[in-house]
Design goal:
This protein is mainly α. It has 2 domains: 46 residues; 32 residues. It is built from 3 helices and no strands. The termini are far apart.
Length: 80
């Protein structure tokens, strides 16, 4: 039941993202990226192999850490 609830919530968020992308064209790229990330995150709950799920969680964690470091460096350099 938890998997289905997460799937339904993901679908609702994707609908909201799609509406925002079509009403505010400036958010097209951000909406597309967030939609892909949301689909990948929702997909984690449907992975049956424990080893693969653990590997994907570690990859997602390190990606988040590295993106935060990249953001900090861009802020420090005055790019953002």
């Amino acid at each position: 039941m938890i998997r289905e609830s997460i799937l339904i919530a993901g679908i609702i968020y994707l609908v909201v993202i799609a509406v925002q992308m079509f009403t505010v064209p400036a958010t097209l790229l951000q909406g597309a990226i967030f939609g892909i990330v949301l689909l990948a995150g929702t997909g984690f709950y449907f992975v049956r192999h424990h080893e693969l799920l653990e590997h994907l969680e570690v990859v997602a964690l390190w990606a988040a850490i590295l993106l935060f470091v990249l953001y900090a460096l861009l802020r420090l350099g005055g790019v953002i």
